[in-house]
Amino acid sequence: MPFDAQDAAILAALQGDARLTVAQLSDRIHLSTSPTWRRVKRLEEEGVITGYQASLDRRALGWGVLAFISVSIEDHSDAQARAFENAVAALPEIVACWSIAGSADFLLQVVGRDLDAYAEFAMTTIRRLPGIKAMQTTFTLKEVKPPAPWPIPRPD
To answer: Which CDD domains does the record match to this protein (predicted)?
Structure first.
């Protein structure tokens, strides 16, 4: 979707602080409140802004382990992939899932309270998801660059 410099400024500001009021946002982007509000509404309606959320510290919530699991499934039919995706979506410990190309079919981002809790979850829950042929876990040792705001493309 094409957007101009003011749209880009709105997106950057809201990714930095989604709690900004329209008045605060309009001050930041040097535009009056009504046009700012209309632009935000348009960006929401066009699906560029998909929601607003607070950033939480996983460790403060008790999630000491962060792991990525590469998963290969037995059957590559649409029904098998959908069954796997639906099962993954129901598990809150799986915080993200991507269908990927390469040696695996899916990449899961998973949290656990500690290594024992992660091992229990992996062996009793993940291994039993529909259609799993193989899985390989990679544990994070250090968060070098945490998830960051999306880069805003330069307006044309």
So the answer is: HTH_ARSR
